[in-house]
């Protein structure tokens, strides 16, 4: 008896997967998957290959490189970093488990110096109010002090960011901004970012990288802001299609109604 | 309108009945178009979006105030001051942003599909009030969903065209004839063109299409073409199904 039950369950499971499961695997359902990319932010680390769950995901990423997004199922993933060109053989420089949620975008930064290399994963939100721009700042320079980022000679937009931190996004009007990175709480500029162009419907991440304040530089990553409709478009007007219910009766009714109304109105006008 | 009707009614109650029936008739015949966006489901979604937008607008306003304050300061003076003070500052070329995968691509202005003899202009379109993707007003134009990615970038870029207009076939009438392997080409205003290859096509009930699969994130560089298919449902004022042709950037 038990065996039969198991068989039945197996068959039910098979049926369900046959109907629901297979199409989901044939086409990637991005709602269930996470989008993950890697930023090489370790100033003294060599070029690296990144392996995810044992497969080469990125090859030859150098300092300041950011990869395209990689689609991964929600859940835990084994991310291993190897020196480039060794085919993932030998000991990885670093191996960590990264947990991702479906429907989210992530940047995983390989950060700090080579001997204390770590992976930091943080979420990207590539959406913005239509016509606006959005920016955030990441402090990825292990030797640099806490910083403010603000307008040259003006107010700070982001304050007190320390290694390792990625700020929230700030929505701004699209324009060219004269930004600078300052030692936190001071007017001492560490890095001049004059003429930073922030375009509409784009999302910017300004990552400060480098070993310390002297070798500080920035990687500005620009992403296209995306939005999804809630409904499919109305891509037809019916002029060359079979119709579910007749247009003619409705058209005739409207026409007849209109005619009667017109006649009636005319009569009424005549009466007055 | 109704006031004049009831005035007439006061004079003659039979006329009122007559008018009411005409009113009813005309109301019935106009509902199909208006009723689809007004379903309770959609209404709820629309409110959600509005709320979200209004909070975002508030933040936007705050930010705007900040930035105007900043820009009203005597910038030139401030700048020379900073330069004088801070000699060790690493200067100074404007930083070129690194484009994330989804940030590339071209803005399409024409589309050509030799396999079904389609060649037409592409216009940017956004969202309707009810959150649906907008479509071009005429049957000859193709709409590119500009709130998504550009063709050639990582993600799902989307074009939509009518299958028919009020009088006959429109630009995407033959879209259903496309087969895997057929090529489509989009060209930008400065003449750059990209070719995509049809991978598969799928028809979905119009209110139950996998929006996320057609418009959402993907690591591939896709361009999806949408048109209507199936019977035209007069009550709903739309075709019963949507045809999506999925294509992927041709590997050079």
From TrEMBL, chain A:
Keywords: Membrane, Signal, Transmembrane, Transmembrane helix. Residues 34-149 form the DUF4397 domain. Residues 1-26 form the signal peptide. InterPro entries: DUF4397. Pfam families: DUF4397 (PF14344). The chain crosses the membrane at residues 246-265. The keyword Cell membrane does not apply. This is Peptidase.
């Amino acid at each position: 008896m038990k065996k039969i039950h198991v068989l039945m369950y197996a068959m039910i499971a098979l049926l369900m997967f046959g109907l629901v499961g297979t199409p989901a695997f044939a086409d990637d359902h991005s709602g269930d998957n996470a989008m993950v990319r890697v930023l090489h932010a370790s100033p003294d680390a060599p070029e690296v290959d990144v392996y995810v769950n044992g497969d080469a995901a990125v090859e030859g990423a150098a300092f300041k490189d950011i990869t395209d997004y990689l689609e991964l199922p929600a859940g835990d993933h084994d991310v291993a970093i190897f020196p480039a060109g060794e085919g993932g053989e030998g000991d990885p420089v670093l191996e960590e488990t990264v947990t991702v949620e479906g429907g989210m975008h992530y940047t995983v930064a390989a950060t700090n110096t080579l001997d204390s290399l770590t992976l930091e994963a943080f979420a990207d939100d590539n959406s913005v109010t239509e016509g606006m721009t959005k920016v955030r700042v990441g402090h990825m320079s292990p030797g640099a002090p806490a910083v403010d980022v603000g307008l040259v000679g003006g107010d700070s937009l982001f304050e007190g960011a320390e290694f390792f931190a990625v700020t929230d996004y700030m929505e701004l009007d699209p324009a060219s901004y004269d930004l600078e990175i300052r030692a936190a709480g001071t007017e001492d500029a560490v890095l001049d970012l004059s003429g930073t162009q922030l375009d509409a419907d784009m999302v910017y991440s300004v990552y400060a990288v480098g070993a310390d304040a002297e070798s500080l530089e920035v990687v500005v990553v620009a992403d296209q802001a995306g939005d999804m409709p809630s409904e499919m478009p109305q891509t037809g007007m019916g002029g060359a299609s079979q119709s579910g219910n007749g247009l003619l009766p409705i058209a005739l009714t409207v026409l007849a109604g209109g005619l009667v109304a017109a006649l009636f109105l005319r009569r009424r006008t005549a009466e007055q | 309108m109704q006031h004049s009707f009831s005035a007439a009614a006061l004079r003659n109650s039979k006329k009122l009945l007559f008018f009411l029936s005409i009113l009813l008739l005309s109301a019935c015949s106009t509902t199909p178009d208006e009723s689809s966006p007004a379903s309770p489901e959609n209404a709820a979604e629309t409110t959600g979006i509005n709320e979200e937008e209004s909070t975002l607008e508030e933040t936007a306003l705050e930010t705007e105030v900040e930035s105007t304050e900043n820009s009203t300061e005597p910038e030139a003076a401030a700048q020379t001051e900073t330069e004088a003070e801070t000699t060790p500052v690493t200067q100074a070329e404007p930083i070129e942003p690194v484009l994330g995968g989804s940030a590339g691509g071209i803005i399409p202005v024409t589309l050509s599909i030799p396999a079904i003899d389609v060649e037409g202009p592409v216009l940017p379109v956004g969202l309707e009030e009810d959150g649906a993707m907008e479509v071009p007003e005429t049957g000859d134009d193709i709409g590119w969903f500009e709130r998504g990615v550009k063709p050639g970038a990582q993600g799902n870029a989307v074009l939509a065209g009518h299958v028919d207009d009020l009088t006959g076939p429109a630009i995407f009438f033959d879209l259903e004839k496309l087969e895997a392997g057929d090529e489509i080409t989009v060209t930008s205003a400065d003449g750059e063109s990209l070719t995509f290859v049809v991978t598969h096509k799928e028809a979905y009930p119009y209110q139950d299409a996998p929006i996320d699969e057609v418009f959402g994130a993907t690591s591939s560089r896709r361009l999806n073409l949408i048109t209507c298919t199936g019977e035209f449902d007069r009550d709903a004022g739309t075709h019963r199904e949507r045809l999506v042709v999925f294509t992927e950037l041709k590997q050079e």
